[in-house]
Predict the 3D structure of the following.
Amino acid sequence: MTGTGVGPELLRLSGVSAAYGHHEVLTGIDFHIHEDQFTGIVGPSGSGKTTLLRILLGIVRPTTGTLERADGLRISYVPQLETINWNFPVTVAECVLMSRAQGRWTPRPTREERDAVAGVLDRLGIGSLAQRHIRDLSGGQQQRMFFARALLRQPQVLLLDEPTSGVDVSTRHDMLHLLAELHEDGIAIVLTTHDLNGMAAHLPHLVCLNHRVVGEGTPADVLTPDVLEATFGARMEVLEHLGMRVVIDEARDASSRSAG
Amino acid sequence: METLLAPLEYAFFQKGLLVAALSGALLGFIGVYIVLRGMSYIGHGLSHSIFGGFAAVQLFAAQFYFLGAALWGIASALAINGVTRRTRIGADAAIGVITTASFALGVALFARFGTSGPAFENALFGSILGITTAQILALVAVSIVAVVFVVARYRALLFATFDPEVAEVSGVRVGRLEALFMVVLSLAILATLTVIGVTLVAAMLVIPAVVARMLTDSFARMLVLSTVIGTGCGVVGMYLSYFAGVPSGTMIVLTGAACFVVVLALTGGRGLRRSAGLDAHPAAVA
Amino acid sequence: MRWRVLLALTVAPLLAVSACSSGTTDADDRPLVATTVSPLTSLASTIGGERVRVEGIVPEGTNSHTFEPEPRAAELLSDADLVLVNGLKLEDPTMALAEANMSPQARLVELGTTVLPESDYIFDFSFPEEEGKPNPHLWTDPTYAVAYAALIRDELTALDPEGADYYAANYDAFAAQAQELSDAIRVDQATVPDGQLKLITYHDAYAYFARTFGWEVVGAIQPQDFAEPTPAEVASLIDQIRAEGVPTIFGSEVFPSTVLEEIGREAGVRYEDSLRDDDLPGAPGDPEHSWLGLMRLNFSTMIRGLGGDPATLDALDITPRTPDTAVYPQ
């Protein structure tokens, strides 16, 4: 697992800023996605993580700067679970098949498509749930369904927005393994997370974001009290345990307890 | 049996039955997308909105009132779509603003410049008991366009309705697709408005889709069921109206409502839970 | 009907503004007579002539049965010295508005209710007895129109005694013209083939006329409350038309009815859609823009449609004795 971004460049942001009205969310961002990328974007709420993802996806247009993409680049996106109307009448199979929407003129899936859907669902361990309604799935299963939908397009780049929010510890664990596996298969991965210990510390490459890039590198490089203070605006302690960084965040824990 | 066949001796009833079935099918079919996008009010809204076009056309070429109303309806639908997508204004609010403004503009034009043509209601809101061949042909044509469009772009349309952002990222041209859908929708509303009237259009755009939603969790099945339920309500309502001595439009709406109640009783909480989220929109991501 | 209410609500402010510019001039101290539908406005103007100002309330081509008066009407009613309505529950909202706004000295006269004894009320398809509203279309019968005119003459004389002779002369001239119209109808209806004096109309406006002149009203398709007819009603009307053998059914120009058109097609009879209910032919000021002009046009259309020759009606002189300067809202 290298993930630091070698190999051909697929996507590049240069000097990008973004604003909603007069409220500037991102300034002077330079960001590259290489074939071998496996990056976590960390930062507090409102730091521009999701906006950065949306710029990479082409949904949000930067106010300044440029976005360059390799020709015919296939990007897949796994949105946050909270953005979805889970009562929408689709089954898991119907949902996964959506990503074969382009250039299709018949509603019925072909044999090849049915096999592909079954294959990707099996690989993600939810093959038996194909005919279930999406609301009847657990959070982890819903997340996997979106993975399946994203993978069905055979993407070169996979972007994920907070893939571990709202899932339990074992699901998070599975998710990490799955992402590592996909990365091994040659898919470039960029995700956002605010989970420093459960997610960020396990990734090969991190970008710390607070409206601008505050730090970049391996967890050992950036999960330091100084970089974290610049990112989150609060002093945190960092321990080392079996070669892994563990961030102790008393203020954050206290605030999240009182908020939630 | 003979009593059942009695009304069929009349050509007006045969045509009424055909149109009730066809309108029910068309509106039930397209209504699935309307209900799932939280635009249930659009049938009622657009029927008001076209008054603006009707009044505007009276100023220079009264005989083209139908064309004026049609173009105005399409423009309103596109405006609603644009406002909903580009701003954080919800679909129902956008419908409320645009269609009432359009109606008021029509009223203002009428009040200021008067009218030379036929009365608005009589000109645009037809009766299911008095149908011309041209109206049937228009309805058939629009139905074909709607089915071809929805079937051909089935997955893209489903993706765009379910999750427009990811659909866009996955290569679906959501903006263009939705604009096309709004044009087809306006045509469907106009074609049915002239034969079955406002109330019935508004009802048939919503009731079959909601009932179908209570019966299934699969989108494909919901689409088929809603079409079948729309057709059934049209045919049964039309028949009942003959024997009950109640106006046909009223009876068709009542049949739909009865269908809703029966399905609700049969599916109980499960059906309710399914239809509960029809108007819920997930929070937009900042 | 909802449309009308919405329309009235939305139009109100606009009309209030325009009323300021086009309203009656204060310098004019002639008595002001407010009326409702345009045939009544014409009758009032015919008798009142140049000695009074006459202003209508219901715009021509509006459904008077469901009409909701606008604020402009309240202003007119509060200024009026005499308010003439048809009554027989035709213009209930306008009457309510009149009672609320009229000056204490002014008089409200229900022409139809005064002229027609209750024993002569007609209830029928569009005006069923259960609802308690008799058919109010008295003025389409020339004999009742003359009775209206006589009542108007008396009311105007009471209001303006100096003009007694003037009003009497206007009335006499009108009564003579109405008599000529009646005579012409009788002459021309005799040219209609035997047993064909049968009417099927969209708007149920000829019940009293039919009784006086010996016609038969077979049916009317527009229910009072503007609801759609039921399929069973349409079916029975088709059967009836076939059984009666009427050659033509009549619709209204302002309210085109696809249902009546369909009935005509299916029963194999002609559908003539050019009758006029309340809107006078021509433009205000034209000789035919009057009660006489309206009735001549309608009866001529009916007689021609039923296979007769309305030559006498068409040749009738309908030039009014005094020019019509009444205000007809459009």
Chain C has twelve helices and eight strands. The interface with chain B takes residues 3, 6-7, 10-11, 14-15, 18, 61, 63, 227-235, 238, 253-263, 265-266, 330 of chain C (CB under 8 Å).
